[in-house]
């Protein structure tokens, strides 16, 4: 038992030698996370083309990203419970198949059917996010958790980067439908690899998943650290999703950038987010308090966010995009690790805890880009909406300052049977 940042950390799983097969398992999980990130933002550089193709409004087309976030938010907790009930192998296979539904995007004759493929993708993402923590905890020793969580966050960030860089060029060559088809194929390949690699739900510690009682679920969902973490993530995730979704269109219309250049500039956010994820993973692996990561990210993100849209001056624009990317992903490895380190946390409960925090965060990820789209339709510009979103990460500062649970709170939240 160790103490970190005022919180007592108790390992649910002992630090014992693990099978080398865990690296193959993580490889398949990494590719699923990459495919998820690639598919999630692939539509944002294509907004103008989709608007023109279907004759939709800015508010409507923003639902392709914001609506996906809302579905993820609503489905994360049920997805985590589903994973705990059926096992991570079946849950991740189900999630991968649902995420692969974007292969049907080229067949969508209407905007509503295109949106339906995004809903199926979001359901799959929710199940995948809810199942992944159990896989990580069951296959990896405690000291490796920050590194593995960081690697999976890097996979998502790299997927987002690739999609923002290549979506517009691919669309110019084969149409925006073909660009979305590519992301679906990658996801299908990742799902097939998972089914080959994942032997069963028994991890390398040799333990089978225990049954998850309703009271365990209730205590996990409502415990104070999980809720505070969710509120903090809401601000950071809401701002990142809204800016990543709308900056390509903003640069195209306000600064006169081509769609390819606009996507390239916006891709700096997730690209430098890779560095932020690696930095957060490495620093948290070295030990120490977790909360400062939230506070630092929450302070840096608003400053950097304003720099990404107040001017097209390269000396301000590009450094701001880089800093925003680092700050927006710095805290994510810690956000996934904190629930895993709570006393009495099992792999299945950790999945539900992470799902709960991300569910709260994705509510903001739905509302923020929609808010920008609505305010743009009402005011004729992006200024008000982007300004509001730039300030949202301050919730990370509040969460980091308040997220100092004492031993009694944690023990009470983890007690089986209330």
CATH architecture assignment name:
Up-down Bundle
User: Which parts are unreliable, with pLDDT below 50 for 5 consecutive residues or more?
Assistant: 1-17, 204-208, 405-418
CATH superfamily: MFS general substrate transporter like domains
Order of helices and strands: EEHHHHHHHHHHHHHHHHHH
C-alpha-based Rg, rounded: 20 Å
Mean pLDDT: 80
Morphology call: globular
Strand content: under 5%
Write up this protein.
The chain is mostly helical and 418 residues long. It has one domain: MFS general substrate transporter like domains (Growth Hormone, Chain: A), CATH 1.20.1250. 76% of the residues lie in helices and 1% in strands. It has helices at residues 21-40, 47-54, 58-86, 88-99, 111-139, 145-174, 176-197, 214-222, 224-254, 259-266, 268-285, 291-307, 314-330, 332-340, 347-379, 383-391, 394-402, 407-414; strands at 2-4, 7-9. It has a two-stranded antiparallel sheet with strand order 1-2. Helix 3 (58-86) packs antiparallel against helix 4 (88-99), helix 3 packs parallel to helix 5 and helix 11 packs across helix 13 (314-330). It starts with a strand and ends with a helix.
